[in-house]
Each structure stands twice: as structure tokens, then as C-alpha cells.
UniProtKB/TrEMBL annotation:
Xref: InterPro entries: YwqG-like_sf
UniProt organism field: Allokutzneria multivorans
Protein name as annotated: DUF1963 domain-containing protein
Amino acid sequence: MGFTTPDKPVDVAALFPELAELARTAVRLHPREGTTTAHESSLGGPLLWPAEEPWPVCTIDHDDPRPLTSAEGRVLEVRKNALHDEMNALVGVGTQGDMAPFYRELDKVQASIREVRRVEFADDPAASLPMVAIAQFYARDIPELPFPEGTDVCQVLWCPVDHEPHYAPRPQVWWRDSSTVKALATALEPDEDSEPGCLPRACRIAPERVVEFPDSDELASAELRDRIAEWEQGQKWRYGPHLSAAPGTKVGGWGYWIQDIAQPECSEGHRMDLLLTVASAEHGDVGVWMAQETAAELEFQREVRFTLTNGSTGNTWIGKDEEFDAAGFSLFGHGVAPGSVTVSEELVPVTNSAPRGMDLMLGDVGNLYLFVCPTCPDRPTAVEFQCY
Ligand SMILES: [Zn+2]
Ligand SMILES: [Zn+2]
């Protein structure tokens, strides 16, 4: 099945010509639960993984109660405990601002502890968790990806527990030449310690190209930002959520940011591109980013408002073709006052009646943003995670 995002209700590049040169194409993936093979592109589906290559496991930074034994490690752990004590002493007497320097130092100390721990326990990691398949893209389906010379498959797996510093699953990317894979490996089953919200349902994808524009915070010109904000006054549509970047799981394009914008650089100073956004929420609003085919699957309802016999007002919801039975309805033991019922003309989608796709729950309805350097030959990656 193909998916069609409706044409935008407003042509922002015509209204604000500076936006035209910032347009990028994103590939929306529209995941739907379904069976695929290792020889197809998918999200959360089987991978073209060579039998002779061990299935990847993650061994880093998982919970480990063992104390560090090196002198450096002991100093760090003493400092971490002291910081916890100082922060606990401030709780209730200090203000949020007082805590900020402690959090900053704690982040640094914990990062150093992770580094020391990786060295000290290199031969005996706390727990090794099988990584899980998140995405597989063949170049024939998504040629927009920066496939390194001689490769035609991009595979993304992640460790399905929260990792610092983002408290999000830790992804890793593999690029392959499909012609070199003769026999397939059997994927390891996810560990029972995996976060359920980080384990995707296997989905087919239906790539759809859409044109996107940057979040207004990503616009270099303050004057343009102000002009857009002014135009939004009295408009039904808002530039950010409705007219700039697509929500949901997608390849490339501009970031659909939940918090601040992110624009990482690789260690060589190259600007990195969005390789993949993995989203907990797929669809976006009806009439704007929700694909017509998805909207056709939604259930709709109407709101009914009324006054109760005790004088208070109330409301309820009925199916779009249902009749409201005022005589048979009561709320907290009170009936509906005769002649007080109004049924809304407007149809409202039933929450969660749209297909759930991969059915992920990353943090609180979060997005994981995977960046790649399109310039460095080994394609270094970076991760950003944001949630509500
Ligand atoms: Zn891990
Ligand atoms: Zn680079």
C-alpha cells in the first residue's frame, strides 16, 4: 500500500521565498505491522546478517554494582558519592539554580566512571544484551542514503535499554554489500531485561518523499522568524507543527524537534545529516501530516454536551453515526435536562485509533535522531534523543 501525505494547506515557500532554498526531501516510512524477509527493506524486520558474523551484543555501560578497584576509579566513586550527599542536603533548602553546577559535575564524573569501568571490566562486562533490529534499507528503496562505495544495505540495530547520556537505546549502523552475504545468521532473541518500549514490532515500510523546511529555530534570520511568527497570528495553521518538518519515522529531511534543535558535527568538523528519525508517535495531524490512507483508517466520534437535572453541565462522546439516547443517559446519578443536548458538528478522531506502526515508546513519546557524516568514508554517527 502506498501512502500520500496531503498537499500542504499553505505554500510556505511562496509566502517566504527564502525558505525555498532550504527545502529538503525526507522519506517518510509509514511503518505497518507485517512480515518481511531479510531480502527486503523493513523496520524491526529480519536482517541480511551473514552467518559467519556473530549477532551483535551490547556490553557497555549496563548497570553494574561492582565497585571500581583502580585508584582513579576509587577517587571518582568517592567524588560521586560526595556529590550525591551535597545534592541531597540542598533538596528542600536550595533552589533549582543552586543544583545546576552539581548536575554538571555529576554528569562529568559519571562519564569518567563509565570510561574507567569499560577498561576495568573489559573482560567481564556486567551484562551483554543482544541488540535488536530497528531498520534495514536497500539502496534500491532508499537511494538517498549515503551508501559507502561498494555497499547497498544499511542496517540499524540498537541496544534495547536506556543508555547514558540520553537515557535512550544505543543505536549502531552497519553498511553491507548484499552480494557478499551467502548464508544468514539467526538473530538472538531479545533479553528479558530489554525495555518493552524499545522493542519494535516488525513492520513493512512504504517510502514516501515529502518536502520539508527547517524548524523556525533553525532559521538563521531572526527577521524571517519574526515575519513567520507575525503571519501565524490569526492563522489556523502553525509553521512549526503543520508546515515545516514531518513527524514520524523517516529517513533524512529536517529534524522534527520535540525540544531544542540539534546539529552535530563529526570529529572532522563536517556537518552531519539526519540518517533516521525513529518516532514513538507516527502520524501527525489530520489534514496536514497524516497520510490520507492513515486518516481513512481512523475512527471518528462526536462530542455531546448537555445540562444535568442538578444544573451542572457535562459531556460525553458518541460514534459518528450514533444517536445520543438522552433519556437513557445519566452521569453521577443525574439525568439529562430535557432540551439541553447539543451534538457537535465536528468529527474528532478517536485517540489511538490509528495503526501503531512499530509500537515503540521511547521515554515519554520520544524521538531518537540518528545522524551520519556523509563526508567521512567510515560514516561516523551521532545520536540525539528528545521526549516530552
Ligand atoms: Zn547496551
Ligand atoms: Zn566527517
